[in-house]
Each structure stands twice: as structure tokens, then as C-alpha cells.
Amino acid sequence: MRQGGIRRALWLGLCAGAVASAEPGVTATTVRVGERSAFSGPSAGLGTELWRGAQAAFLAANDAGGVHGRRVDYLVADDGYDAEQAAPAALKLLKRDVFVLFGGVGTPTILKVLPVVLRQNASDGLFQFANFTGAQPQREPPYDRVVINIRASYRQETRAMVEAFAAMGRKRIGIFVQDDAYGASGRDGVKRALAAYSLVIAADTSYPRGQTYEISTAVQVRILRAAGVDAVVAVGSYQPCAALVRDARGAGWNVPIHNLSFVGADQMLGQLNKEPNAAALVKNLLVTQVVPPISDTSLPLVKDYRAAMDRYDPVAPRGVGDQSYRPAARYSFGSLEGFLNARAFLAVLQKAGPDLTRKGFWAAAESMGQFDLGVGAPAVLSPIRHQALDKVWFTYATTGGWLGIENPAGAIQ
After folding, report:
1. Which regions of the chain are under pLDDT 70?
2. Between vectors from CA 63 to CA 58 and to CA 66, what angle results, nearest 5°?
3. Which of 17, 175, 179, 403 could be joined to 206 by an S-S link, Cβ 3.0–4.6 Å?
4. Would you put residue 169 in left (φ > 0), alpha (ψ -120 to 50) or beta?
5. Residue 128 is inside which H or E element, if any?
6. String of DSSP letters for 230-271
7. Would you list the DSSP string of 183-208?
């Protein structure tokens, strides 16, 4: 071949290589998924559990040959559930050339990341998939057009619980909320649910984000109790919410206490089970979940999840966060949600086909229609619906674990 022909062939080869690698996070053999989440601090259990389940799902998919021949390369960055660290953590992942921002814990954190996603979407099609929050901002304009949600919303969770309490005749609902965007979202959900019964919140208490189990919530208990509250909705994370239960029961107040799914039910119960009077503490303790009970192996997703957790047993991402959290059990609601999110991502990835682009993935997500994630409830995604599931499950605490129940009235003593 003449020198000019050689140069032309090399130039064409370089161009072909550039085209093949032009899509962020995609190669012929891999797709890079990036998650910024809480891997340090008092909420590290939330991020770590979410990662454990997703990691098990991605490892299982990789060992089965990947999707269209591509393995999922799962990268993570720690934001410590600190809103000010969330955007820098997301940008760190984007510098590592990820295809999508996946998962992540929390409302105050996602609020800092959403403007980054919106800006990047306009330039290169970046999107967020399956954040661990039921808050509204990513479900409403302008951010709904750059986010795919999997879980039910906080409005759906609070409505389900308020309706159940009202059916029991418990209409003086008090709240205990985290003093940030997450708590505000939960408060809004309770207000909206109560308004359907021409009711208002009977007492409103809060705590600062990052509060630990050792901090007393006796003041909040006194306020709620003095207001004649006959049920409490808690919108927080596992350490302060466990403290609320401890202090309410310690004061002889056995009021039903409900927590949103975000709380980290397994971590909260683990904290309470360390107390000598655990059996008394966990009475009348409820959590709405956005995944089915981890014991329900009649459901295909739960069966697959348990098999993957048994096989891979992820513990924590190496070299990330402060390594302060270690799982007390192999299975948890948090890791099941991570597994569910990953399976939903893999389903869309399959539909997107071998010529993977961000634009093509988004189009595939919007064309999913009704599909089956194996949870006993239909999943639906469409151009006007960017939340796959609406189902809310009721669970109640025992010292041996969480049990599912159709009507939570049956768990109240």
C-alpha cells in the first residue's frame, strides 16, 4: 500500500474508533454505571445496602454474559448523605466517563444533583436512573424529563398509611421529620393525605439531619403526646427514628409509629434489638415499603435476589467511604430495592439493543409500556410516565424481623 493509502487507512481507523467510543461510558464490552451515595456517616447503612443489592444483580448479569455482550462496570463515589457533597461526587463520576447516574440516597442530595443532570442532559443526554427517594422534585417539571424513577413516591406511601390510620379511627396524626427537603416532602405528603379527610397535622416535630441514636428525642415525644396524637408518621433515617421509638416507649407511650421506606427498616430494627427491652420497643412499629417482604420467595424477584445475595454476598464497596457500616444480615429491604433498581436498568438496557446510546436508552425506557419486574405488581414506563411502580407494602416489626401484612390494623395492639 502506498504511503498516502496507509495514512488514509490509519485516519479512517482512528475515526471509526472515535465514533465507537464517542458515547460516554460505553465500549464494545462494557457500560459504566456511576452511583454517588451515602457510604460514610450515620446514614452509611442506607447507601451500602442499596449498593449491595445492585452489585449482586450486576454481577449475576455479568456472569450470564452481560447485556448484548456488555458487562456492567459499577463505579461509586461517597457523598456521606451530605447535600453539599452530592454534586461534587456526581461530577467525580462524570469525569470517570459514566453512561448514567444510577441509584443514590436521599432528597437533599438529589436536589443538588438534578441541576447537574439537567444541564448535562441538554449537552450530551445524561440522565438519572432509580434514585432512593420518593420525593416530588424529580417527578415534576423540569426534572421529570431527565429522571427514571422505579419506586413509589412518598405521597403514595403517606397516603396509604394515613388512609389505614383513618380506617382505624386514628385521625390525630403527628409527625417527626428530618429538618430538610426529605422531611418537607414527607410533611407535604401527610398534609395532602389528611386533607382528604378534612384533617390537619396534630403536632409537628423535627430533628436535624445527621442526628445519631444517642441523641434524646424526649422533647419531641412530649410535644406529640401533649397534643393528643394517636398515631405518628416519622420521616427520617434509622438512627433518630429508632431513638424516637426508644424514647416514646421509655415514656410509657405505646402509640403506633409509622416510618417511610427510606428509614432503613433493617438498620432501625437492628438498633432497637440491641436494647434489653427490645420486645416492648418494637410493638406498634410500622414501615411502608416500596419493595415486597424479603421473605416472600413466591415472588420471582425476591427468589432471584436471595439467590444472588447468597452467591455473591457483597459487603461494602472497597476503598469508598469510612467503612463504618457492615451488614448484620445477608438480606435487607435496602439491598432488595437496589437489586430491583438494577434489574429494571438491565431490562431497559436489553430493550435498548446493541447500539447503545443515552438517547437510545431513554427511548427504550419510554417504550417499555407495562412490563414484569417479578414483584406481583405491574411496572409501567412511557413517554408520560417516568415512575415504574406504584405499589406500597405494609410491614410491621417483630424482634425476629419485619413481617408483611395487608391491613396494618392487624399489627396494632
Report:
1. 1-21
2. 65
3. 179
4. left
5. strand 128-129
6. SEEEEES-HHHHHHHHHHHHHTT----EEE-GGG-HHHHHHH
7. HHHHHHHHHHHHHTTT---SEEEEE-
